[in-house]
Design a protein that fits this description.
Layout: H1 2-26, H2 45-60, H3 65-75, H4 84-91, H5 95-107, E1 111-114, E2 123-126, H6 130-154, H7 163-193
Antiparallel strand pairs: 1-2
Helix pairs in contact: 1-7, 2-3, 3-5, 4-5, 6-7
Length: 194
């Protein structure tokens, strides 16, 4: 059990390290109080492919594809962020589609408005600490699955095999025990590297 827990912690550490590197590489000054003058997104074939892939991958974890594409664009955007019009042009999508995607990302705590004095259009960027926010939301899903397994065990009819539900409850219980320590470790690492 301890070996499995150590392996799981190692996998989570690796994932968080990769996310941290991606965030730092995407924009070094996103935490600045006053962003530099606005700069639109200059795309390459590689960045366009990244934005499309982000849309597909985030869709696989339950996010609308348009929101995933916008998140992909924001990950490779300048620190000044992007306007909905710039996002629509970069992603070859309608502004209405961008508006819905931005609203979704903002409500999920993954994107935020960027202060940009003197400019009328709103700008958006990836919100600092977005990945911890996203992971906390995922943790609520783990709790739901854990609770479902417990409910299933109480509802088992006579003669039913309880093993799959027990395994499900143990698995999600394990992740729920690991998560708070991993999240605290991430916040500490983030504070040290900021």
């Amino acid at each position: 059990m301890a070996v499995a827990e150590a392996g799981a912690k190692e996998e989570l550490h690796l994932a968080f390290s990769q996310i941290l590197q991606m965030i730092k590489k995407s924009y070094n000054s996103s935490m600045a109080d006053t962003p530099p003058a606005a700069a639109s997104l200059t795309t390459s074939a590689e960045s366009e492919q990244f934005m499309e892939r982000a849309g597909l991958l985030f869709e696989m974890v339950g996010m609308p594809r348009a929101a995933g594409r916008v998140l992909g664009a924001l990950l490779v955007a300048p620190s000044s962020g992007l306007t909905p019009a710039e996002l629509a042009a970069s992603l070859q999508s309608s502004r209405a589609s961008m508006s819905g995607a931005i609203k979704y990302l903002t409500l999920m705590g993954l994107a935020e408005r960027v202060p940009n004095p003197g400019e009328r259009a709103d700008r958006f960027r990836v919100r600092p600490n977005a990945w911890a926010t996203l992971t906390k939301q995922g943790n609520r899903k783990l709790q739901t699955l854990h609770d479902l397994a417990a409910e299933g065990q109480r509802a088992l009819p006579p003669g039913a095999d309880p093993a799959p539900l027990r395994e499900m409850q143990r698995f999600y219980g394990h992740w729920l025990r690991l998560f708070p320590a991993v999240l605290e470790e991430w916040h500490q690492l983030n504070r040290e590297e900021s």
